[in-house]
Amino acid sequence: MPPTLQETSPAAPSKVFIKTYGCQMNVYDSERMGEVLSERGYVTTQAVEEADLVILNTCHIREKAAEKVYSELGRLRRLKSRGGRDMKIAVAGCVAQAEGEEIVRRAPVVDLVFGPQTYHRLPDLLDRHGETGAAVIETELPVDEKFEILDAPATKPVRRGVAAFLTVQEGCDKFCTFCVVPYTRGAEFSRPADRILAEARKLVDAGVREITLLGQNVNAWHGDGLAGHDWTLGHLLNALSDIDGLERLRYTTSHPRDMDNELITAHGVNPKLMPYLHLPVQSGSDRILKAMNRKHTAAEYIELVGRIRDARPDIAMSSDFIVGFPGETDADFAATMDLVRQVTYAQAFSFKYSPRPGTPASTEASQVPEEVKTARLAELQALLGEQQASFNEACKGRVLDVLLEKPGRQEGQLIGRSPYLQSVFINAGDHAIGDTVKVAIETVGPNSLTGHMVEA
Questions:
Q1: Which homologous superfamily is 399-453 in?
Q2: Taking 70 as the threshold, does the pLDDT of residue 90 lie above it?
Q3: Cα–Cα dist 383/371, whole Å
Q4: How far apart, in whole angstroms, are the C-alpha atoms of residue 191 and residue 224?
Q5: Residue 275 CA to chain centroid, in angstroms?
Q6: Distance (Å, whole) CA 267 – CA 308
Q7: What is the pTM of this model?
Q8: How far is CA 371 from CA 116, 269, 285, 335, 368, in A?
Q9: Looking at 86-90, 94-98, 318-322, which range is the least confident one?
Q10: Are strands 210-214 and 230-232 parallel, antiparallel or unpaired?
């Protein structure tokens, strides 16, 4: 008897839904998870209701990060129980690394728990769960093994957008007293230059025109370069700029202690390196910086910014600030405000200090009252907001190169990025996503610019 149509039709592919929390490195990790799973036949979906596998790729930097994950797991438990669905649920990333078995204890609905250095093992973890039905927990830190496997050629081409992230460095050896990264991502590890260059070429072949290099301390990257020479990040950026079709380079996040002369020089001589630098300072008080174990002073930071601006006068600076660190006085906070006024920022991120379990600062007795932290944060953000508005206003009338990235809401409108990471809205005419066009800026908003194209 011949097989029926139903018997001969191929099975529908399994679907994976990945929800990403936190930093750009998590975005990169989620993309790589999707690639790993595509080799197993999974396709990504934006509808969690359709998913056969749901992955929460978590971040542990901010307060109550773990509680947000448990709240999401509660919603997934209810979704999974509807109709007896065989939905697999996984918790990945830094909360998984920090919480481990506690996740399965509090949320038995979870099938897989794996840290940021073990997602390359996803197919094996799924197989192990399938064999036993028991939850699988994998939280080792074999970062070198991860990239060995991820660097292997993929058998299926992966579509990319115009801009992409590329992790070049992971982990941290700085041990700032407020930060969990050394405990969740491990020691500093730099990927080999030839592997980075190969991945960058693959991205460009897939349509990418702008690459942002990622690392917890990205400017701590170092390794064997071509012809046996030792390279730092400045050398790597210069080598990447030789790739045909790659138009723009960025990198984040940097530490002031790793901003060497070669990298500063690259900002002045490499035309593909965008004039935008995120350089966290955290505080303007030397006493607080010492308590944070930052190992730089406010004066050293300001002097460093001056050297960077000497190399690239049109560079825009961004930073991170923590207010209300344990023991912070009114005078310490005033020093932070003074530093902001001296440096001036085009953009910045500021947060109230939140204790992270396991970090030295979390056990300090001199915690700042919540209402004081709230008031200081509001004052700092008002100043930073004024500086951002002033920087954007100064762009009015300028002609900026804009890389077109996505369609806008209006017909014929495209949205691109300026060299300073601002969103720019234009009527694109015959131009398409992926083109770089010159735009005369006409109007300025809090977070975006609008203009019209001009001839090159």
A1: Nucleic acid-binding proteins (2.40.50.140)
A2: yes
A3: 19
A4: 10
A5: 19
A6: 8
A7: 0.82
A8: 35, 47, 20, 20, 9
A9: 94-98
A10: unpaired
Q: Where are the beta strands (DSSP E) in 178-325?
A: 189-190, 210-214, 222-224, 230-232, 248-252, 276-278, 316-323
AA letter at 218 = V
**Where in the chain are the domains?**
12-144, 159-273, 275-394, 399-453
Residue 33: its H or E element = helix 24-38
Bigger pLDDT: 351 or 65? Answer: 351
**Does CATH place domain 275-394 in 3.30.750.200?**
yes
Least confident of 64-68, 202-206, 268-272, 370-374: 64-68
Strand partners, 140: none
**Of 62, 262, 338, 340, residue with least CA distance to 181:** 62
Question: Quick check: do 159-273 and 275-394 share a fold?
Answer: yes
Q: Domain spanning 159-273: which CATH class is it, in words?
A: alpha beta
Cβ–Cβ under 8 Å, residues 374 and 333: no
Strand, helix or coil for residue 167 = strand
Q: DSSP secondary structure string, 151-206?
A: TSPPSS-----SEEEEE-EE--S---TT--HHHHT-S-EE--HHHHHHHHHHHHHT
Token code pair at residue 284: 């303007």
Is residue 250 within 8 A of residue 295, CB to CB? The reply is no
**Residue range 347-372: mean pLDDT, rounded:** 92
Topology of the domain covering 12-144: Rossmann fold (3.40.50)
Q: Which of 396, 398, 447, 406 lies closest to 426, judged by CA?
A: 406
Q: What separation in angstroms does the CA of 108 have from each of 74, 88, 115?
A: 10, 12, 18
